[in-house]
Amino acid sequence: MLTVWIIVAVIVVIALFFWATYNGLVTLRVRVDEAWSDINVQLKRRLDLIPNLIETVKGYAAHESGVFTAVTEARANVLSAKGVKETAAADNQFEGTLKSLFAVSEAYPDLKTNQNFQELQAELVDTEDKIQASRRFYNSGVRDLNTKIQTFPHNIVASLFHFVLRDFFEVDEAEQAAANKPTEVKF
Asked: What angle do CA 17, 20, 26 make, to 5 degrees?
């Protein structure tokens, strides 16, 4: 009779382990999905500000059509990006084109003092801060999920229920170096 209770206890412990591990993995996966959604919301917010910013700058620097075209194309690339890696690459390109747009604005003192331009620029800075915070939150969730998926004994439950590793939202070093280069503005 004691043997039966020991076997039942072992089965219950194993079942509790699987139950707790599975629920922990699901919780982490949902957090990562939520964090990815937060990144998308902030990227969309930034992308929605850009047409207004371009129109404001166009009024002062109409002959800078190449910069406006580059920003518009980069914005479209972010909107059409699929997945973490593609979105990160498109976002890095977009940040570089924004630098060009702001470099153009530096050449126009009247534009820099325009209230609409200043408000848009302040909103954009706020949005950039929120994007950075969202990226950090996403990457910490991915780190936690990936760690749990790869560590024993959680990896057994993860493989049984097909939990997959997620990609970090990383900045490509070459693209970041190009984005950090000073932008040349020629007239």
From this structure: 135
